[in-house]
Amino acid sequence: MLKTMSGRKKIAAFFSYFILILFGIAMVYPLVWMFFACFKTNAEIFGNTSLLPESFSFQAFIDGWNGVGEYNFTDFFRNTIVLSVPTVLFTVLSCGLVAYGFARFEFPLKKPLFALMIATLMLPDAVIIIPRYLLFNKFGWLNSYKPFIIPAILACYPFFIFQLVQFLRSIPRELDEAAYIDGCGSLQLFFRILAPLMKPALFSAGLFQFMWTWNDFFNPLIYINSVSKYTLALGLQINLDAASTVPWNQIMAMALVTILPVILIFFFAQKYFVEGIATSGLKG
């Protein structure tokens, strides 16, 4: 009987791993196909069903990087970094401070304000895009990176605030009391005691924001109208619009170069990312 149960468990485990492997291959295959398509010609992409190219050539990377106009992907990479890095840093700092206020302090209308903040998560982006555009236009922020950086400074990302509040609530308040006894102020407590303990959650928030900002196409398309300030996502669109015959090998090459930083950061920082999502601060 025990042997029969053990055999059934092995069979169930085999089928489970088999299904997981199939799903993994289905998810990874588009990236593998895109990688090999970078080394093919347009005719080979559409006329050959083979995954591997007939010959490996880096010409698509060279031509794609040089672009089709006055600006190339060096400019687009620089613009994306200038946009993404301050947005991520200010998001982590501002949302961390706001979460610290909600989690550790008592003040009038705390619960209604927190509920209002959570309610903004329910608003779809399509509902607020026109009011935001009109507001930013009135402020004179259009065709600049201020529509991205200023909201990051003002902690306009309730998802990250909620995530950090939940993390902070699991950290024992005895640490706060001990820090106050040792003479720490509120800001010292946050930066010297709580922030190091919040590292996984802060890193997760920063990684999410980096991926969303780096890959964002819609918002830069709405707020930026000068090619000199285009990000990578908009730079890829230029190649699609500039020629009657789309150089798909160049598009694939630049798409691969565009997503490579995000993939590398995610894999190298996967430990902190998983900790920030799965854990709830200190235990015990």
Query: Mind describing the biggest β-sheet?
Result: none
Q: List the secondary-structure elements in sequence, H or E.
A: HHHHHHHHHHHHHHH
Q: In the CATH scheme, what's the topology name?
A: MetI-like fold
Q: In terms of structural class, how would the helical and strand content be classed?
A: mainly alpha
Instruction: Report the principal-axis shape.
Output: globular
Low-confidence stretches are: 280-284
Number of helices: 15
Helix content: over 70%
The residue-averaged pLDDT reads 87
Question: Would you identify the CATH architecture?
Answer: Orthogonal Bundle
Could you characterize what this model shows?
- By secondary structure, this protein is mainly alpha-helical.
- The chain has 15 helices and no strands.
- It has one domain: Orthogonal Bundle (MetI-like fold).
- It starts with a helix and ends in a 6-residue tail after the last helix.
Itemize the secondary structure elements and their pairings.
Blueprint: H1 2-37, H2 42-47, H3 59-66, H4 73-104, H5 110-119, H6 125-139, H7 146-153, H8 158-169, H9 174-181, H10 186-197, H11 199-215, H12 218-223, H13 232-242, H14 248-268, H15 270-278
Index terms:
MetI-like fold, mainly alpha, single chain, globular, 284 residues
